[in-house]
Each structure stands twice: as C-alpha cells, then as structure tokens.
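Researcher: Go.
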Amino acid sequence: MSENKEQSDVQHIGRDRQLSAPAPWYRRRWLLWTSLLLLLVLAVIVFAVIHKNEAKAAAAKRALAAGKPTVTTTVATATKGSIGVYLDAIGTVTPVYTASIMAQASGVLTSVHYNEGQFVRKGDALIDIDPRPYQAQLMQAEGALDHDSNVLAQARMDLDRYRAAWARNGIQKQLLDDQEKIVLQDQGTVKNDQGTVNYDQVQLSYCHITAPIAGQVSLRLVDPGNVVQADGATVLVVITQMQPTTVIFTMAEDSLGQVQARMRKLHTLPVEAWDRAQTTKIASGKLFTINNQIDTTTGTVKLRALFDNKKGALFPNQFVNTRLLVNTLDGVTLVPTASVQHNGSVAFLYVIANGVASVRNITTGVADGGMTAVQGINPGEVVATSSFDKLQAGSKIVVSKQAAPANPAESYTP
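Model: Structure:
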C-alpha cells in the first residue's frame, strides 16, 4: 500500500510540473494573432460608426439647406460718397413784421378799403374814420394862427417905427424896449398856435389809416358804422409780412460751439423746413442769427432762420421741423436706410454674393435722404432692401427688378 501511495504522489507531482511549465511558442503566437484580429475588428466597427454619424450630419445639413426657400428680394449696391450732418429741431414760423393796428382817433368808421386776406403795399388805404370833428378843430387852430400871425406882424411894424423915432430922439427908450418885448410875446403866441395846428393835422391824419408795412391783411374785424375810441383795445386790422419770413427754433447748448465755428467759417448755414411728418420739404433758407443768451431753464438757445417764402409755403405761427446743416462727411460708405436691420442694439445687413445671402454686422452713422453711412461693408457690395421676413443666412436669392418697398422701419431678426 505504501508503494501505491508513493506512485500516486509521484503522478500528482508530475502533473503539477506540467501545469506550471511555460506554454509552447506556437500557442503564444496564436494568442497574439487573435488579439490583433480583435483590435482590427474593433477599429473597423469604430470607423463605421463615425462614418455613419458623419453621413447622417451631412445628410441633415443638406436637408436643412434644401428646406430653405428661394427668396425674391430687391437689392442695392453700397456706394462711396458724401452725407450731411444735420441738427433737427421743432420751429415756429415767425414773420419779420406783424402790425396790429388800433384806432388813434375816436369816431365813426366811414369805410373799409381792404378785402379779407388781401396783399397790400406800404401806404395803401385801409380804413377811414369820420374826419369832420378833426377838420373843425384844425380850422379853429388855423384861424387862431392867422390872427396871432397878423398881431405879430403889426407889433413888428410898430417896432420898426419906434426904432426910427428913437433914432431921431422922438421917443423915450422905454417905449422901444416895451415894443421889443411885445414882439417876442407875439412870436411865442404864434409858435403855440403853430403847434396846435400841427397836432390837429396829425389827429386828422389818424382818420385815414394806411398800411405801415407790406403784407397780408387779416379777416375783417370792424365794419363801417362802428364807433372806435382812440387808444382803445380794439384791433382794427392785422397786417403780417409774408415775404420774406423767418423760422425760430431751439438748439441744445452743447451744439452751440459747433454751430458758431461753422458760422465763423462759412458766415451762414443752410436750413430746411419740413412738414410735421418729416416727409415733405417745405422750403429752404439760411441761418440768420443766434440769440444772445441761453435759456437756463431748458439749456437751449434760440436761432432764427430766414426764408424768402416766394411761394407762400410757410404760414405765420406754423409748426415745422427744421434741419440745420452743420457739417458734411466725405468719402463714407453709404447704403439705403431700408437695408439696415436691427437685432436689439446690433445693426446688420443681408449681403448678397453669388446668389446667396449672408448676415454682416455693421456700425451705423449719419442718416439722411434715405441713405445711411455705415462701417463694416465695402463700396460695391450688394445688399438686400426687402423681404426681410423671409431672409436667412444662406438663403438663395432671386433679384427682383421692382423697386424696393418704402418701409425703412421694417426689421427682422434672423
């Protein structure tokens, strides 16, 4: 039994040695090739997955591009040019002269010579007041003047005789001296009478009222037969000079230095008057003067612009929008104002190149006459001016030959 046990132990020891011995070389090579094959299969799988994802992304991109509709729009070309810098304000048409005529003589109106709204020249007859009381007063004054003038003439004749008698020692010196003083007294009386005559002549002239200025008369305020009082509060007629006329407007004091500098250089600045909606230019004029002080309550200064108003487009007390040209910018890039879009505080344009739209952010500057000075685009580039509700970056463009719609305020955010 002991021998069997020893043989069994020997067998177990042999198997343990066989198990602990290193694997043959052909078995190790097989394991290496198996690992490389697994790695290759794994790489192929990864490559296939990546390629499949890229194909899906490209297909999605093509599908997205194919889903963007073709947009028909009008276009314009950015240009290089000049644009004016204006100061805008609200002004009031203020005539150079306005005459409110009141009665300076009391009496009954006998005639009204003007028609309502008539244009009159200086010196044209307007109104007559009954002159007879003033004619009577003038006649009395002239009668007193004639009487006292003759008394003065008689006193002078006596003075000449007294002087001749005194030369012959025929009278006393006292009589000659008295006569000289009588002549002086009569001269004073005649001068007083002459003053009364002149005053009555002026009063009589007030009965015939003429136009003190050239202009347009108002609606008729009085009729023949009305009784008026001298120095009363009743206005008989108003005359307003229409040509030329002025517009008074205000400007912030911060802009005063700029305007004064241009005035010193050019001596005058162009001013335009526009209607309330700022769509129609009414008249063109020039800056006439600047007020001599700033209003401390508003921080503004008043300016007066002169207009010839030959067509009568400016009417007294009319409110207008004024535009004062203070500078001109040369060599700037200009695009139609209708092409400029806004996304919050960001301004941008749709630039058209090779039939495709792209978004270009810009910096806007001065706008005038439907054009805006911009930075961020070059002269010669084409921009869209309509169909902003359909445009997107990458949209295919068909250029319309029709004019762009007049909606500069239209804006779309891509």
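Model: The chain has five domains: 2-50, 71-83+330-399, 87-95+241-328, 101-126+216-237, 131-206.
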